[in-house]
Amino acid sequence: LTARYYQPWDNPVTGPEGFDLKVTYSATSGGIDDLIRCNISVLRTRSGGMYIAEIGLPPGANLERQDLEVLVAERKISRYEVEPDRVLLYLWNSRSELSFGFRPRFRMRAKTAPSALWDYYNPDLRLDLEPQLFVIE
Known about the structure:
A hairpin with a 2-residue loop joins strand 6 and strand 7 (86-91). This protein is 7% helix and 50% strand. It is mostly beta strands.
């Protein structure tokens, strides 16, 4: 089975009412090994359950894992998973303000993976955000 999918970002998919995700980066340009903060705001007014915030990262980003461990210790997230181009945050709170850092490892002009928010038990309830361009010199 082979499938193809294309998402035009000039008309991005919007999620259902009651899902809101904002992802901002302290900088989208800089130098190798500069600390960049990723700030996330999540609001969910729909009822119940766990949901997942998938946060896109630029290629080759080294996460400050201690930031994520603090979020777990403070019970702001249940757990997290790090993938090469994104980090998945498992959330129960209906409103969350989160932040973590990462450092670019090499020069690049590349986009992050798209960021998304979805309900763990009903993945059709989903909100997608456009990838962000990073220029690292």
